[in-house]
Design brief:
By secondary structure, the protein is mainly α. 89% of the residues lie in helices and 0% in strands. It has helices at residues 2-17, 19-32, 35-56, 63-78, 80-105. Helix 3 (35-56) runs antiparallel to helix 4 (63-78). The radius of gyration is 19 Å and the shape is elongated.
Length: 106
């Protein structure tokens, strides 16, 4: 068991030093420092929660709410920093999936 835990510690260090992890952290930092992007993401999250609550209560969703959501979705899709973050997240997840495949195939 000690060997396995030692290897896990080495693996976690290698992951933390990987380019994909560094790219992910840099992309996260860029988004966090973009106050407009953070505000839009929070606004979108709040609207999505409100719409989910309306759906749960079987209440109608107003056209204005749909328009607002479409605008926020468009912002998320076209914001360069958010696109970079999304790609970095996907790349990092791909690496973790490959690591998991190697572990489970042994």
């Amino acid at each position: 068991m000690d060997d396995v835990l030692e290897l896990a510690t080495k693996l976690s260090g290698a992951i933390a030093r990987s380019t994909r992890f560094e790219d992910l952290r840099a992309a996260e930092k860029a988004v966090i420092e973009d106050e407009a992007a953070v505000a839009k993401i929070q606004e979108r999250d709040e609207l999505l929660a409100a719409l989910a609550e309306k759906e749960r209560k079987v209440e109608p969703i107003e056209p204005e709410e749909k328009r607002q959501l479409a605008e926020l979705d468009e912002f998320v899709k076209t914001n360069e920093k958010l696109a970079t973050l999304s790609k970095a997240q996907a790349d990092f997840q791909e690496m973790l999936n490959l690591v998991n495949q190697r572990i489970t195939s042994a």
